[in-house]
Amino acid sequence: MPQRETIDSGEELFGDDNRDKEEEFLQPVDINATKDELIKALEHCQLALGRILAENRGLRQSNSELQATSTSKRRRREKGDNQLGYEQHIGPLARRFLFTNETWVRTSDFRKDRPELFSNAEDRFANNNMYSRAVTAALFDSIPEKYHSLLDYTEYRHFAKDFIAELGNARSSMINSVRGVIASILSSAGHSVNNKILGSANADRSKDKVLLGLLRFPEDNKSKLFAPILFPQGKKRLEYIFTSQIVLEIHRVMVHGQSSLGENSKPDPKANGTKYGISEATDHSIALAGTLARFLVSADKLWASKGAITEINWEDNYRTYRKLLTSNPDAPSIKNIFRTFNKHVFAGVPKTAGNTNEVDEDDDVEDEINAAMHRLAFGDFDDDRDESDGNGEVLGDDSNVHIDVPVRDWQPIAGPSHLRQVRFADGPPHIQEYVADQDENSDDERPRRSSRRAGSQANGRGKGPA
Question: Which parts of the sequence are annotated with region: Disordered (predicted)?
C-alpha cells in the first residue's frame, strides 16, 4: 500500500490547491476500479476528512469567540442604559399582566415600538396581526418605561423569553390556587365529584359523567364553546353567560384567594386583587374565569394554548369570549354581566390603586358565535326562553330589583358546604336563573321554539393563533 502523505501545515489543510486536488479524486469510484485506484481514492478521502475536522474545530472556536464578544457588548450596552436587574422584577410584572391584561403572550408580540392603537380597542379582534399589536401595546402600557427598549425581540430575546416563562409560572400558580377549592365550588353548586379527580392535575377526568355534563349539553357529542358550566343551572341562556355560580366563585378565588369564599370573609391582603389594585371585572378577567372553569373540569392536564388531550384551543376560546363581551359594551345584557361580577366578586371590596378528548370545533361554531354576539347586542332572546317564563322581557331597564344569589360558606374540600341566601339590592334584572327552578323535583321543561340564526348580521369571529 503506498505511503500516505502527512500534513505538516495549516496551508496544506486549508489551501485552495489542496482542496482542488481532493475534489478531483473525490469523485465516485468506477465499479470496475482497480485495487490501486481504490487505495488512492481512500487516501484522498482520509485527507479530506482530516482537513474537514480541522476546519470545523477552527470554525467552532471562531464562533465561540464571536458569541462571547457579542454577549459582552450587549451586556455592557444594557448596563450603560441602566437596564440590568430586570430579573428581580419580571416575575411580578408577568403576574400583574396575567391578571390585568392577557393570558398568553408570544415572542412575536414583543416589538421595538408601541403600536398606535388602544390595547382594549374592539378592532383587536379583526385578525391575528391586530390582536398581536394590541398585546404589544398592552406590554408597553404595563411594563415600566426603563425596560421598553428590552421589548424589541430582535435585539433582546432573553427578556421576552423570561417574561413568557414567568407568565406561564403565574398561570400555573393561579390554576393550583383554584384547583384547591374547585371540588368545593362544584359541590356548592349541586355537583358531586370525587375530590381526587378534581384536586389532581394528573387525574383522569375524561370519563366522569358529572364533568362531561358540565362541558357539553345532552344533545352534543363533544365539548362546547358555550358549555353548561358557564350558565346558571347549566341552562343555555346567552343573556346569563359566564354568570354561573361556578364561574363567579372561580373569579373570586382568582382575585381574592381561597379564603375569600368563607362567609363574611375579606380579600386576602396578599392576594392578586389587593397587590395589583383589581377592583372590578373586565372582559379579560371574565373570559379568563370562564376559560379556566372549562379547563379545570376537562381531561387536559396542562393549560397550554391548545389542549394536548382534548385538543381544545383554549387560547382561541379565551379570545372569542373577550370578543363576545366587547362586541357591544353598551348593550343592557353585557352591562348586566359585568354588574353581576362586580356585585358577587367585588362586593365590599374597597377601591385600591394599583368524550372530552374530541376537538372543540364544529362546522356551525362560527354561526353560533355570530348569533350569540348579535343576540347579546340586540336582546334577541325570546326564541330560547320557555313559554312559561312570563312576558319574556329579558333586557329590561336598570330598575331596582332584589335577586337572591346563593353564596357558599366555604369549607375544606373534604367537608360539606352550606348555602346561605344573600339579598342583592339593585341587582341586575337578568340573573333570574339564581332563583328559578329551585325545586329539585321540577325538571320538566316545555318545548322550546327553534332559534333564529343571526350570523349574517354580526361580525365574524376573531380567531387567535394556536
Answer: 1-21, 62-85, 378-400, 423-466
